[in-house]
Design a protein that fits this description.
The structure is a homodimer. Chain A is of the alpha/beta class. The first copy, chain A, folds into 2 domains: 19-33 and 271-376, Aspartate Aminotransferase, domain 1; 51-263, Type I PLP-dependent aspartate aminotransferase-like (Major domain) (Aspartate Aminotransferase, domain 2). Chain A contains 10 helices and 16 strands. Chain A has helices at residues 30-35, 65-78, 94-105, 126-132, 207-211, 226-240, 245-263, 273-295, 332-337, 364-376; strands at residues 19-20, 42-44, 88-93, 115-119, 139-144, 154-159, 178-183, 202-206, 218-223, 298-299, 306-308, 313-315, 321-326, 341-342, 344-345, 355-359. A 7-stranded mixed β-sheet of chain A has the order 3-9-8-7-6-4-5. Chain A has a 4-stranded antiparallel β-sheet with strand order 10-13-16-15. In chain A, helix 3 (94-105) packs across helix 6. The radius of gyration of chain A is 21 Å and the shape is globular. The two termini of chain A are 23 Å apart. The interface between A and B is large, with 77 and 76 residues.
Amino acid sequence: SVMSSGKKTPATLSSDSVINFARGDPTMYHSYWSKLGDRCTMVIPGNDLMSYFSDAGNLCWFLMPELDHAVRRLHRVVGNAVADDDRFIVVGTGSTQLFQALLYALSSPDEPEPISVVAAAPFYSSYPEETEFLRSGLYKWAGDAYSFDKDGPYIEVVTSPNNPDGAIREAVVNREGGKLVYDLAYYWPQYTPITHRADYDVMLFTFSKATGHAGSRIGWAIVKNKEVATKMVKFIELSSIGVSKESQLRAAKILGVISDDCQDSGPNKEETLFEYGQRLLSERWERLREVVERNGVFSLPKYPQDYCNFSGKYTDPSPAFAWLRSKEGLNCDNLLREHNIVTRGGTTFGVGSKYTRISMLSPDEEFNLFLERLSAIKGTGKGNCY
Amino acid sequence: SVMSSGKKTPATLSSDSVINFARGDPTMYHSYWSKLGDRCTMVIPGNDLMSYFSDAGNLCWFLMPELDHAVRRLHRVVGNAVADDDRFIVVGTGSTQLFQALLYALSSPDEPEPISVVAAAPFYSSYPEETEFLRSGLYKWAGDAYSFDKDGPYIEVVTSPNNPDGAIREAVVNREGGKLVYDLAYYWPQYTPITHRADYDVMLFTFSKATGHAGSRIGWAIVKNKEVATKMVKFIELSSIGVSKESQLRAAKILGVISDDCQDSGPNKEETLFEYGQRLLSERWERLREVVERNGVFSLPKYPQDYCNFSGKYTDPSPAFAWLRSKEGLNCDNLLREHNIVTRGGTTFGVGSKYTRISMLSPDEEFNLFLERLSAIKGTGKGNCY
């Protein structure tokens, strides 16, 4: 589960306090938005946003037109996805709700058995539980896409860049009857070079990972097929009668400011969110790689440099998570816990316990302490029991 | 479905425009909040509300402490429900999400078959669809509680005052193994006399119906049992990783202003939300009853006057919906549609088509037009086909 190990880190970090990197709380971005001052401040009068309806003429009747506009514009400015006017935008209470709306939209009560849902391991740890917890007769989790060999229709979730390991991915099953869901939560310039405008049937994005505003619970889907979009809207109507208008309006404002800054070519232009994120994350990755290399206990994936159409230069990927592997095959999560570092172990992602996932989006103070503790870990033994 | 017939009424109402009373969009309250000016204005800086977590030490870790406090205080001030500190508050994306969280919390994957979910007819039209749409193996809709006679565990939803018919209700099945969910969305002084502090195991409330802020998608449950509350939190974590913080904070502010005004005993005290709502609704009910009596085609339920502990006087109930019955047994929804009045017919509430439900919470202009058209309807025949 995403949150079950989520006790908050105390404000003052003492030398033996436990630091939590198990969740992907994107608190790193706080300092960026502080720097922007009042530019993103929302003011909402008491008599505003009262109706259930946002845009009764839109297929997605609870989508605020401001957010619709801001989302399409930002994708155009960044060049990471095609969100032209012939595509449907469906807003959700985070992309978590949209993922479940898609399971509903891509399945059918008329099928003789539940449709299989797969993803290539290592896969996002919440997919299996989100698919299974209500014991739906419409869909069921069928595990690792690499070992999936059942005939008939299936849904494959392709997360790219991947959570947990940052890999750029394509579908792996590639059989008839397959329906693909692209989770592009991390396909933004701070995490990876933008190499093409994604143009898949169904693409998921989330405000949390794009800008760091996880508390707003805003995600959006870009959908080509009208019937799929209609069923997603129906799901969201039945599960929550729409999505918070306050959050939608705030997301619209913040995404709008990002687009403004990206398009600003004046002499006093601000550092954009993407430049800031990329700068911080690549510094962190560099320092992490140094520590990992020096102590010799772990390894990290290597990512190929690529040309980023957005920044106009070659950049290194700097994923939101570090996918750490114990060289000696030890239980990596346990090993780190002994040093008061809480991470999320490989087994929850469908692979072995020699892997663990570490959030790279923590505040500076926590990240520094993490590196300090990681540096102190030495090779085999030392009383660890595996 | 709540929304499928939800085309927005045009801003200018011409004599032949269709007016929609099928949904319960509480737009009537807009004028009240306009009158209060800046007192409920929310200001949210761009760097605020970013983390997934609201209160990591709380069982409901995504509940904003401000909302927790405001909800408990308002119930204390109004006296409609016990929300003492030993009760758990669980926030949801509307009470719609909380209803589904309860189905999950009160069922078990270890049972041999899905638990039956029932409600006494006429029941809220969305309960069956919300229970059924994912074909869960944990719970299933079992219809009218009056005719339920299956042994074993069951969930009974008790809506009081009832949607659609405004009746004060108690559980009807009363058998061993029953789990009760009290949906108290309309148990506020503008709709009904507050006769006691409700103190059930599980009680649902919603911001939409209490204050008219339907677009915020905020509901809350008051729960006695820790295990039930824990499972509800788990459901909301899995379905949306929490609830919009912007909406929670805004709800906290608005509920706080209502409590302030209710506690104000000064000479210049404002008309409270409840006084305003009660005044408007009782005027509307009086006018509606006059029209219904005059044209002789329909009848309406009668509600007993009762002593309201909150207002300190005897008041008449003035429900949020009018439950209209055709005296001649005609299809009431069809009859009204012929006069360009869209309502929600009795069959969706589990009873006959001679009933239909009409929202009493529309803006003045629409309500006036409704009465005008209703007045014009004459007894049998006149080319109507039933």
